[in-house]
Amino acid sequence: xxxxxxxxxxxxxxxxxxxxxxxxxxxxxxxxxxxxxxxxxxxxxxxxxxxxxxxxxxxxxxxxxxxxxxxxxxxxxxxxxxxxxxxxxxxxxxxxxxxxxxxxxxxxxxxxxxxxxxxxxxxxxxxxxxxxxxxxxxxxxxxxxxxxxxxxxxxxxxxxxxxxxxxxx
Length: 169
Description:
Elements: H1 2-38, H2 41-77, H3 83-87, H4 90-128, H5 132-167
Helix pairs in contact: 1-2, 1-5, 2-4, 4-5
């Protein structure tokens, strides 16, 4: 019985972290970014400097925890011990494709969103110091971050659909 409890806890933590990960992405793109863009430039810069790194760290750590617990969960289910049989099942395909898409979403944040956010913060600091030219760059970067966020949301929706498919296969 203790092993079953461990599997249940790991699975719960995996799902919980995944919901928080993709939920944070939805919140950032649908609520936080539009609210930041509506602020006056002087206040916007200060808010971006405070929110940007924190939100990014939060999302990246949740992604890492989700992926790590997903790997542990796949090991604890015992289905990976017979990989050919696992790959022949709907569960195996759903889990495999879902894992690849989750890792792709993580890489998207690391390679695309993170540099854009830090560029946004650098410009926001310049704007705070009186650089009026930098203010024109902020909406362009915000659009790029929003598009990257939409891509992450799409990947997240696909991952959730695949995980539900795996769960009921």
